[in-house]
Amino acid sequence: MTLRGVRVNGLAPGRELRGATCIAEKRIAACRWPCFMAGMLRAIFLLLACQLAGEALHRLTGLPLPGTVIGMVSLVAWLALVPRERPALSAVTAWLTAHLAVMFVPAAVGLVEEGPVLSRYGAGLIVATTLSTVLTLVVTALVFRWALQRYAPESGR
Questions:
Q1: 3 near 24, Cβ under 8 Å?
Q2: Where does residue 54 rank: exposed (0-12), middle (13-18), buried (19+ CB within 10 A)?
Q3: Is this structure's pTM higher than 0.70?
Q4: Staple 20 to which of 26, 47, 63, 101, CB 3.0 to 4.6 Å?
């Protein structure tokens, strides 16, 4: 098996295997990238499957919860039952979170297309968004202070 031209973990060919001392280590290093990608694809599939299952359950049963919330609950249940999925899922969610701004582009484009609706209800939307944001911040701060007082060690106060 030749390893010339193989890219592992994004490094240029030849640089990624300098620390390898034997053929077995070189083979393991060459295998890491496909194995990593397979785990990432499995984790993405898990996220999408849980969301789809939640949406299907919501539409079939008429539960008063959004399908995405039902999907998140099923994802938490799955992770409690199958903990080996956590590392790959952590890598996928870290990547998605790092690129979260890109995911708002379709929503922003859709918002721009709704000019007449925004001109009619824009002030109300801004007031509602501002009040809900401030309320969320206040409630979060109060819960955090309560949790610190209740659960902080006695010596730390």
A1: no
A2: buried
A3: no
A4: 26
pLDDT for 50 equals 93
- Does residue 8 carry a pLDDT above 50? no
Are 68 and 54 in contact by the 8 Å Cβ rule? The answer is yes
Encoded tokens for 54 = 């939640």
Contact 73, 24 (CB under 8 A): no
Q: How many residues does the chain have?
A: 157
Q: How many whole angstroms separate alpha carbon 21 and alpha carbon 151?
A: 50
* Amino acid in the structure at residue 29: A
**50 neighbors 57 (Cβ within 8 angstroms):** no
Q: Greater confidence, 157 or 108?
A: 108
- Taking the C-alpha atoms of residue 76 and residue 53, their distance in angstroms, rounded to an integer, is 13
More confident residue, 141 or 82: 141
| pLDDT on residue 93 | 87
| Contact yes or no for 91/46 (Cβ under 8 A) | no
